[in-house]
Structure formats: C-alpha cells, structure tokens
Design brief:
alpha/beta, 3-stranded antiparallel beta sheet, Rossmann fold, CoA-Trfase_III_dom_1_sf, CoA-Trfase_fam_III, 412 residues, 6-stranded parallel beta sheet, formyl-coa transferase, domain 3, CoA transferase, CoA-Trfase_III_dom3_sf, 2 domains, transferase activity
C-alpha cells in the first residue's frame, strides 16, 4: 500500500532533536526526506556519544562521522537521505535553491535570522517556490522579547514550569526541581511541528498556497502543562512538586513492595474499591475520608501511609497479577532493558532490526502510529554522512564533472 506522504519531498535543514524528530515522522509516513548536513561534520548528534555505532564500511584510518556515529543520532534520523552541502558558500546556496524549487516542505531550527543572512529565509524562498511549506523551530519563536535567544530543552523545561512540578518536594530526600529523563520538550515540539506541517499540506491541496510555520519550544512547554495549567488558570492554584504522585488523583504513585516498586494508578472510585478489597482493606473504600477521589486528594497524607504498609506484604509480580485479575491498574517500574523485553512491547513490534550497508545490523525503535490504509514505511537505518549526495545532485541534473568541481571547492 502507498504511504500517506508518498511523493512529498522534505528538505531537512535541522539538527539535534526537535527538527530531526519531526522530519523522521514525515519519513516514516513516506516522505522523501533529504537531510542537508555540514561537510565533514554533519548533525551535531553524530558525535554525541558514547555509545557509538561503528561504520562497517569505514577505512581503517577513518575518524569522526566517517568512522562511527553516536547512538543518539540513530533515534531521530531513520528513513532519510543525507547530503553534505555548505550553503554559506554561493555555489552551495545555488544548489540549495534548486532543491527548494522542487521541495514541498523545508524544516529548519536555526536561531531567528540565522538563515536570512544567506537569503534562505521564508520570504526569499517563497519567491522561489510559492507553494513551499517552511517550518521554523526555535526556542522562543519569531516574535517577542526573547526571539533572538537560543533555546535548549532543559532551559525550556525550567522556564516553562515543568521543572517546578517535577521532582520530590523540598525538604524530602532528593527534594528539588528535576528535568524529565528525556528531552521531552524537543519531542513534543517535533510532534506539534509535524501536525502543523500536515495541516499546511492539506491547506495547500485546497489552495495551492504554501506558508510559514513558527513553532517555539517555550510555547509548546506552556501548552503541554495541561491539567497543571488549568489548575492554576481556573483554580488559582500554583502546583508544586509531588514526586511521582498525581496532584488530582489518589492513589496514583509508586509504592514499595516486598521486592521493589510498582506504580499504582487508581483512576476512579470503583478501581479504588477493587484494590481495597483485594488488599484486605475493604473498609477504606467506605470511609468518608477516602470514599471519593476528591476526599482522597484532601486526605492524601492519611491514606498513603496506610496503603504503603499493606503494599509491602506482596511482591511486584503478585500485585501486578492481582491488578489484572481484580481490575485496578498496577504495573512494574521497568528499566529500559525490561521495556523491550515486555511481551506487549514485543507484540506491537516496537523494536525493529534493520540491515544497513554502512552500519551492519542495527536495532531501531519503531514509529508508534498504526494506520490501516496507509501504514508507515518499513524502517530504514539512518544514513551515513553524505552518502546520498551524488544521487540527489544527479536528480537536480548535475553531472559528475559539476559534482567534482563542487567537491574541489569544499561545497560538498
């Protein structure tokens, strides 16, 4: 079956995570994503290791991205074609303009104004290709007093409020603000960027018009404060840190068991009654202090110690088995290795092994979107630096002599 974005060409001028994650989504949906990288260096994440994946086709004396690429790079670049191009040089800019003329989408994450000095801003490129969809991903957006500042995920987690609600409360062991264990703002920004690009493509099918998309990490972080933002805006409550507990649902947090920890995620009063009955504490579900979720939130400090004492009586497997049998959500707190050993994760084919001409056999995480009519494409390993340069330039009509001349000038 044809992929949803078959026939769509994307120029990926982005680096690191937010931009590449978005363009990887587009590649998974069938777009031809051409990753434009710096000659001799490539995407910064190629060097963000260890761990590294060694190129199987590298000469013995090769170094840097000619010899190996960091595992980090592999998380956000599958299914793309890589070319090297120095578009800061006039000859490189001319090549990029030829690519722009044929492209449907361009994604970049340079600082505001970073591409304008090379004549590669939206206004200039829209004159070359009026139907171009040009997506800019920045820390703070193209307007406002912070527009020209660089933005990084951890900085935005701090400024956007996420770290104020993540971590153990002050005055407790390990208390203090924490960032999330993955660059969640980058990833969420990538998903918003992907949605915006798809919306712009749909708009273009109706009007033929391209447009500029301005996606900012800080905007995304504020938008995804979700219920915590609503609690403040509508309830005038400034949320604080509760560790892994939930501000609006109780019990909804980790509990120590006989051999480790489980996550108990009670979502309604029926589940709480089921849990209490299973735990031999049926009277708690009838106690006016705990009978409803609102009451449990108010009486959190009384209830949690009672539950914690009882949870120590059984093992992780025992509680998880009982949860499945008695209909209350309870699961293990898995390490990453156990995640990929989980039978549900395996059944959903979230780990996929692919063959690469440049890296041998590599394991990748699958795209989680399951489309019945236009499924995601079979995964392809991320490209080695510049391996598609000749192919892409040939598609533009450049012959071998022209390519060799560009290489001699350091453009490729």
């Amino acid at each position: 079956m044809a992929a949803a974005l078959q026939g769509v060409t994307v120029l990926d001028l982005s680096r690191i995570l937010a931009g590449p994650w978005s363009t990887q989504n587009l590649a998974d949906l069938g777009a031809d994503v051409i990753k434009v990288e710096r000659p001799g260096a490539g995407d910064d994440t190629r060097g963000w290791g260890p761990p590294f994946v060694t190129r199987t086709d590298a000469p013995a004396d090769a170094s840097g991205p000619d010899a190996r690429d960091a595992a980090y790079y592999f998380c956000a670049n599958r299914g793309k074609r890589s070319i090297t191009l120095d578009f800061t040089k006039p000859e490189g800019r001319e090549v990029l303009l030829k690519l722009v003329a044929k492209a449907d989408v361009l994604v970049e994450n340079y600082k505001v104004g970073g591409l304008k000095k090379y004549g590669l801003d939206y206004a200039t490129l829209a004159a070359v290709n009026p139907s171009l969809i040009y997506c800019s991903i920045t820390g703070f957006g193209h307007s406002g007093p912070y527009a020209e500042r660089p933005g990084y995920d951890a900085l935005i987690q701090a400024m956007g409020g996420l770290m104020s609600i993540t971590g153990e409360p002050d005055g407790t062991p390990g208390g203090g603000p924490q960032k999330v264990g993955v660059a969640v703002v980058d990833i969420l920004t990538a998903l918003y960027a992907t949605s915006a690009i798809l919306a712009a493509l749909y708009h273009r099918t109706r009007t033929g018009e391209g447009q500029h998309i301005d996606v900012a990490l800080l905007d995304v972080q504020v938008a995804t404060l979700a219920n915590q933002a609503s609690n403040y805006l509508l309830g005038d409550v400034v949320p604080g840190r509760l560790g892994s507990a939930h501000p609006s649902i109780v019990p909804y947090q980790p509990f120590a068991c006989a051999d480790g920890y489980v996550m108990l995620a009670i979502g309604n009063d029926t589940q709480f009654a089921n849990f209490c009955d299973t735990a031999g504490m049926a009277e708690l579900a009838k106690d006016e202090r705990f009978a409803t979720n609102a009451a449990r939130v108010r009486s959190r400090n009384e209830l949690v110690p009672l539950l914690q004492q009882r949870m120590l009586a059984k093992t992780i497997d025992e509680w998880c088995t009982l949860g499945n049998q008695r209909n209350f959500p309870c699961g293990p707190i898995n390490t990453i290795d156990r995640v990929f050993e989980d039978p549900q994760v395996q059944a959903r084919s979230m780990r996929q092994q692919v063959q690469s001409d440049h890296y041998g056999t590599v394991d990748l995480v699958a795209n989680p979107m399951k489309l019945s009519g236009t499924p995601t494409v079979e995964p392809v390993a991320p490209p080695a630096l510049g391996v598609h340069t000749e192919d892409v330039l040939a598609e533009l009509g450049l012959d071998a002599q022209s390519v060799a001349a560009l290489r001699a000038k350091g453009v490729l």
